[in-house]
Every structure is written in structure tokens, then in C-alpha cells.
Specification:
The protein folds into two domains: about 70 residues, Chemotaxis Receptor Methyltransferase Cher, domain 1 (Orthogonal Bundle); about 190 residues, Vaccinia Virus protein VP39 (Rossmann fold). A hairpin with a 6-residue loop joins strand 4 and strand 5. About 35% of the residues are buried. Helix 2 crosses helix 4 and helix 5 packs across helix 6. By secondary structure, the chain is an alpha/beta fold. The protein is about 35% helix and about 15% strand. The strands form two sheets. It has a seven-stranded mixed beta sheet with strand order 6-2-1-7-8-10-9. It has a three-stranded antiparallel beta sheet with strand order 3-5-4. It starts with about 25 loop residues before the first helix and ends in an 18-residue tail after the last strand. Bound molecules: S-adenosylmethionine. The site of S-adenosylmethionine has 25 residues, from loops. It comes from Marivita lacus. InterPro entries: Bact_Chemotaxis_MeTrfase (IPR050903), Chemotaxis_MeTrfase_CheR (IPR026024), CheR_C (IPR022642), CheR_MeTrfase (IPR000780), CheR_N (IPR022641), CheR_N_sf (IPR036804), SAM-dependent_MTases_sf (IPR029063). Keywords: Methyltransferase, S-adenosyl-L-methionine, Transferase.
């Protein structure tokens, strides 16, 4: 394996308080890199947060200052560190059945006709876009299994994607601390989770894991996925993007779904731009995709399907 770690320099450039300083220029370089690569905005108000989250990386890699760290991150050899930087800077907060009203709407309105369609042989696809450590797609799986215990025998699957490979790995492991059980109802806990033999946590059962495929995906890059999707959850992700990137994202979601599909977004997000005409509000931050008009691009058959 190629050693990409740089040769440490003489030692950190400490300021009068003994801390490694981060200049405005350093912050701008980091913020621009994160914006260009991942669409995530880091306003100046987040400078202290960025500093505290990256200081450990700067120290452990032996850089003299943030400038040297930025040089490394922007070099070809620094590509792996870009991923580490991303992991350190992204907000991955999530929990099971977050914004429960969305799962109530799924159970009552969205899933029953989709399950019927799947029983008649249709292909049904759900997507948790920006899934963090997996609690969201597994909440989808548990909601589906409660209505349709034989879902694995039908062509119903859930795609779970996130830009952060560490989150994807955690989602695949499906191991969660015991404290997170509180958000899952007792019948679902007893049917679809297992005690974790090595600790006091729990694991999502094989029946639910089998419905979910995890994959890394940058929402502002190409989407090597086929669609069309019947349900998309993209919650508490777009809030970190600029207005222009959000608008484009809503349009891409509308284009990769079937007419009549559903899009769920986070509590502090809202649909803006041209996609507003395609998305009908059907509940709190829940939308139904209206049929596309003549001339709209048909994107449901793009290349390289992962789902
Ligand atoms: C706050 S979590 C939301 C998790 C879950 N959707 C929820 O609402 O509980 C935001 C997630 O978005 C992911 N994310 C940020 N920028 C992204 C991008 N450009 N592409 C894909 N995922 C991204 C982060 O890695 C993080 O896991």
C-alpha cells in the first residue's frame, strides 16, 4: 500500500496560547473545498466548529499548521484525507423514526398501494438519500415489514446512500446502542431486532437488513442509479446546501421518480425553484410527484444501476 501520509514537519506552529492557529485564509480554503466537493456550506460562523473538529486531524498527522494541512488535502496524495476531513465536518445526527409523522403517512397512505403493486409483480424502490448511519432506511424497512412481513419475497427494496463512507459502513453493520431502542415500538423491536451478543446494544434483524442496500453517493455528483423511485426520503441533508444546489436537487428527485411517487424532506427544508410545479404538498414536508409535462427529460433509465 502506498504511504500517503506526509513527512511530519518540525513541529506545530503554536501561537502565544500554545494553540495551532487557523487563519481566515485557511478557513476559506477548507470551506471552498467542502463546498466544491460536497455542496456543503460552511459559513464563517462555523469557524470555531471547523477548528475544533479538524485540530485533531492536524495534530495527529503532525502538520505545523492548518496551511500545511490544506496543502496536503488539496494534493493528490491527500485524497484519502479529504474523506477524513469530510467525516469530521459533516453532521450525522439521526435516529430511528425521526419525524414520526412521515412514517405514519407511509403506513397509512404511501405503502399499502405500493405493496399491492409489488404483489402483482411490480418493482418498488425506496431511497434514503443522506442516510447517515442507517437509522432512517431501517425505519423504512421496519415500517414496510410491519405491513408486509414477506417483503423480501417481493421486488421491494430500499437504497440507502450517503457521502460519508464511515456512515455507510455503520449502516451495513446495523449495530446500535441500547439507548436507541426507545424510538422503536415494542412489537417492531421484538420482531425485527436482535440482542447484540458482544455488548448491550442491538442489531437490526436479517429480515430488515436484506431489504436495504447501502452505497456511497454524493448527491451533488452523478447518480449511477437506475430508478425510478416510488419513495424518496432526503431529510436534513439539503439544509447544508446552497439555495441553487437545493433547487437542482429537488428537480433531480422529481425526474428520477415515477409520477405519483412521494418525496419527504426535513422539517426545516422547503421545496424551491422549478420543482415546486412538480411537487404537490400532501402533509408536513411530504410531497407527491405530479406527472411530468411533455418535453421533460426522462431520466428513469440512466446507466449503471445499483438498485
Ligand atoms: C443530519 S444527517 C441526516 C440523516 C437522516 N437523513 C435523518 O434525517 O436523520 C445528514 C447526512 O447527509 C450527508 N451528506 C452531506 N452532504 C452530502 C452529499 N453531498 N451527498 C450525500 N450525502 C451528504 C451527511 O454525511 C450526513 O450523514
Amino acid at each position: 500500500m502506498i504511504e500517503t501520509r506526509p513527512t511530519p514537519v518540525a513541529g506545530p506552529a503554536l501561537d502565544a496560547t500554545g494553540a495551532i492557529p487557523m487563519s481566515q485564509a485557511d478557513f476559506n480554503r477548507i470551506a471552498n473545498r467542502v463546498q466544491d466537493d460536497y455542496g456543503i456550506q460552511l459559513p464563517l460562523a462555523k469557524k470555531d466548529l471547523v477548528y475544533s473538529r479538524l485540530l485533531r486531524r492536524v495534530r495527529s498527522l503532525g502538520f505545523a499548521d492548518f496551511g500545511a494541512y490544506c496543502d496536503h488535502v488539496e494534493s493528490v496524495a491527500g485524497l484519502p484525507e479529504r474523506t477524513e476531513m469530510l467525516s469530521a465536518l459533516t453532521t450525522n445526527v439521526t435516529h430511528f423514526f425521526r419525524e414520526r409523522h412521515h412514517f405514519d403517512l407511509l403506513s397509512s397512505l404511501v405503502l399499502p398501494p405500493l405493496i399491492e403493486a409489488a404483489r402483482r409483480g411490480s418493482r418498488v424502490r425506496l431511497w434514503s438519500a443522506g442516510c447517515s448511519s442507517g437509522q432512517e432506511p431501517y425505519s423504512l424497512a421496519l415500517t414496510l415489514l410491519a405491513l408486509c412481513p414477506d417483503a423480501a419475497r417481493l421486488d421491494i427494496r430500499i437504497l440507502a446512500t450517503d457521502i460519508d463512507p464511515k456512515m455507510i459502513a455503520r449502516g451495513k453493520d446495523a449495530l446500535y446502542p441500547a439507548a436507541e431502542r426507545i424510538a422503536i415500538s415494542e412489537p417492531l423491536l421484538s420482531r425485527f431486532t436482535e440482542a447484540e451478543p458482544m455488548g448491550d446494544g442491538f442489531r437490526i434483524s436479517e429480515a430488515a437488513r436484506a431489504l436495504v442496500t447501502f452505497a456511497p453517493l454524493n448527491l451533488i455528483g452523478d447518480w449511477p442509479i437506475r430508478g425510478p423511485f416510488d419513495v424518496i426520503f432526503c431529510r436534513n441533508v439539503a439544509i447544508y446546501f446552497s439555495a441553487a444546489i437545493q433547487e437542482r436537487l429537488w428537480q433531480r428527485f422529481a425526474a428520477i421518480t415515477r409520477p405519483g411517487a412521494y418525496l419527504f424532506i426535513g422539517h426545516s427544508e422547503r421545496i424551491t425553484g422549478p420543482a415546486e410545479a412538480r411537487l404537490e404538498n400532501v402533509g408536513i414536508t411530504a410531497y407527491r410527484v405530479l406527472p411530468q409535462h411533455d418535453g421533460d427529460r426522462q431520466t428513469s433509465d440512466s446507466t449503471g444501476a445499483t438498485q
